[in-house]
Structure formats: C-alpha cells, structure tokens
Amino acid sequence: MKHKILIANRGEIAIRIIRAAKELGIPTVAVFSTADQHALHVKFADEAICIGASSSKDSYLNATAILSAAVATGCTAIHPGYGFLSENADFADMVEGALMTFIGPKAQTLRLVGDKAQARAIAKAHNVPISKGSDGIVNDAQEGLKVAKAIGYPVMIKARGGGGGRGIAVALSDDAFLKAFERTSLEAKAGFSDGALYIEKFIESPRHIEVQILRDQHGNLVHLFERDCSVQRRNQKMIEESPSMLSDIVRRKLFQSALKMAKGVDYVGAGTIEFLVDRQENVYFIEMNARIQVEHPVTEMITGRDLVKEQIRIALGHPLSFKQRDIRVQGVAIECRIIAEDPRHMFRPSPGVITNVVFPGGPGIRIDTHLYPTFEVSPHYDSLIAKLIVHAPTRLEAVKKMRVALEQFVIEGIQTNIEYLYLVMHNPEYIKGAVDTGFLMRFHTLFEEANA
C-alpha cells in the first residue's frame, strides 16, 4: 500500500516529521493556519492546505478541519507531533474511524495514560514505584485535605488531565491547600476541560528523569536509555541531557519500571515514562507521555537511532529495526530550548519579526527550528522557536560545545533566552551536574541580583 502522511502540527516538529517521512519515501501534507501561510513546514511538505484562522482552536485544534484536509488530499495516516491533538483520544478515534492510521498509540491507551490518577493506579498494580498520595481523584477539597494531612506536607495538587507543566500546585499547610485546590481545579477545567484533581506527596529537590521506549505491534519492546530534564522553569523543561548522572543501580530500576509500565498499558509506538529521583535515589513514577517528546533529539544523538522514522514504521505495521542489545550509548548530548521570551522581564513572551538569524555549526551540533529571516513569531502559539543540541564524548566537552554554540547563535528582531542559557552553562552547580528541579529557581535569583 502506498502511504501519504498528513502532519497535524506546525513549527520545528512538523519539519522534523517531514524530513523523516521523506527519508522513508513517504509524501507529506502540511496543514497551516492563516498565520502560518509562509512557514517553513508549508514550504517543505509535498502539499499544503489551510485549515483555519490564526487561533489554535480554529486551526491546529480543529479536528474536523484536519480530517477533512487529510481526506481531500488522499492521506493514509496522520502524525500529530506533540502538543495540540497528539494525546487526544477522541481525535485518534476519529482518525481510525476515517480509515486512516493515527501515528501514535491507540485511543484506549491514550485514555488510560491521559488520566494521570488512573496511570498512578496502573503503575502501582504493576509494581512500578509511586509516591504516597490519593487512591485516584479526590471528590472535593475536604477529602483532599484529609489525604494531605495523612501523607504530610508538602503535597502536590495535580490535575487528572494535566500536562505541559500546568494544573499543578504545591501546598505547605491546610490553608494553603484549600486555596490551591480551588485555584488548580479552575485552572484544570479551563485548560483541560476537566477539573478533577488528585494528591501526591511532594518530593523535595528531586531529579526529573524520563525513559524513552519504543514498542511495535508485534510485541517487541525496547528502551533507549534516559534523559535528565531537571532544569525547568515553572514545571516546563528548558535544558535536557542524556545520559543522566545517576548510578547504574538506579538506572536499571528506571528501565525496568518503564518497561513494566509500557507493558501494563499495552503501549504501542514511541512513548516516555517520567520519574522523580530523590536525594536518596528512590524512584517515583510521575506520568507517561504518549507521544514523541520535544527533547527526543538528545536520545537520537547518543544512540544514533531516528525515533521519528521508527515511530512512523511502527504505526505502519513494521517491526522494530533493532533489538535492545543493538542500542548503545555513545557520548553525551545536551539540548537547550530556544524560546521567544525576555528573561530580564519575567520571561514575558516576545513575538515579532525575525530580522536576522545566524546558526552555529560544526561537528556534533544540531539545530531543529523553523526560523528564517523575515519569519514572524506569532503570539498565537508556543514560544519555542528552536532546539539547539550538542553531542560530545564527555559531559564537560558537551557543556563547552554548548557554550560556543550559544555564543554563535544570533537571533535579531525579538528577545530570546539565548544569553540566559549561556549563563546557565557557566554556573558551577550546573557544570558539576548537581541539578534538581529547583536548580533554575536558585539560578534565577542570582541572575536577577546580577541584573538589578
């Protein structure tokens, strides 16, 4: 059967998918909003079709318009990328109902792992370690308060359908809990159309570690090692690296837990299982992301495996092209997310027209981006505009390479976080690898003092 893939996304991930499909000899169709009519993914795809106005709800979240475009252009499959409709079970059902392949897990799996409280229960049932917390969702603030008191403060209040760092609050006392519960429920209802919450024990100063897995339709399952995503702001990742600076004992525990979880939900496709690792190196399951991740390039750099191509092949029914024994770690990779925001002014978004771009280059440097001079960074979408990835034999060499690459990365016309990332690369705590999820808060305090 001859395939054609519609990419239900935009920006650098749409371009990344187009490149993988082209290497597989599969034609692609790009969809775009009126704000993206001059975007690179529109130029690079074999065909392109407008699906609506600038607002995401009128375009990239418009499932009917996307399906209509796929049918009109004769597509056999849809790749959702990340964000937007990538973990929307109803959309996956619609794609399958239209007799096309959804390049991702089955809708049933999306529903299982999309309910964060249910995912915790599945993890517990399969002996995957979890932190103390509620058994499923709590019905109201008073029930949640009882759980919080039982497990002890601090606690996390989390949205059942949350993601992207939203729908999360930390409470240190009864009063703070009641206020945060109401606020988080409202935020979750507005952001995810689901105000249901559950409670977890807050793990202080942990590392945020995730394990990349692939599983095909024939039952073959592998992990592709781990990524450290601890450098994050407001629960949103900014710098990722692989491999992590953990002991082999902890690493094995992470891999075993990730594979158990994948089997427990009968996962098929590319997925990521996320964990917290505390100071005593105890491991706690957080959630499962049923899609390709923003930070997938660091895994590709250390393993030499193309995750997006493998993801497409799996969806089209092919077996994995390698076994676990074939996957080896070579060197260290670091990814910095280049964001259109102003760190000197509370990280406020910085949309606008790009007047000049100079990309760094050289051995071991990769850039995933959709930028070019005269491109307009829209206020309607995520402010991620590029990913800078470096690869070197050792972590210190990778840090040094990233410094030089950031120094030579020029984006003019808007504000970005390039200088901020450059300063992080010189921070003694970061250089030693002594990072946790609170690292960037500590660093930013120093940054603000230096710029006062």
Main β-sheet, spatial strand arrangement: 13-12-9-10-11-14-21-19
Question: Looking at the structure, what is the overall shape?
Answer: globular
Write down how many β-strands occur, each being a DSSP E stretch of 2 or more residues: 22
Total DSSP helices:
15
| Arithmetic mean of pLDDT | 95
Evaluate the radius of gyration.
21 Å
Keyword list:
452 residues; five-stranded parallel sheet; single chain; globular; alpha+beta; eight-stranded antiparallel sheet; 35% helix
Characterise this structure:
The strands form 6 sheets. Strands 13-12-9-10-11-14-21-19 form an 8-stranded antiparallel beta sheet, with helices on both faces. Helix 4 (89-97) packs antiparallel against helix 5. With 452 residues, it is an alpha+beta fold. The chain is 35% helix and 27% strand. It contains 15 helices and 22 strands.
What is the secondary structure topology, with strand pairs?
Elements: E1 5-7, H1 11-23, E2 28-33, H2 40-44, E3 47-52, H3 63-72, E4 77-79, H4 89-97, E5 101-102, H5 107-114, H6 116-125, H7 141-151, E6 155-163, E7 166-171, H8 174-192, E8 197-201, E9 207-215, E10 221-233, E11 236-242, H9 248-264, E12 269-277, E13 283-289, H10 296-303, H11 307-315, E14 332-339, E15 341-342, E16 348-349, E17 352-353, E18 356-358, E19 365-369, E20 376-377, E21 384-392, H12 395-407, E22 410-412, H13 418-424, H14 428-432, H15 439-450
Parallel strand pairs: 1-2, 1-4, 2-3, 4-5
Antiparallel strand pairs: 6-7, 6-8, 9-10, 9-12, 10-11, 11-14, 12-13, 14-21, 15-16, 17-20, 18-22, 19-21
Helix pairs in contact: 4-5, 7-8, 12-13
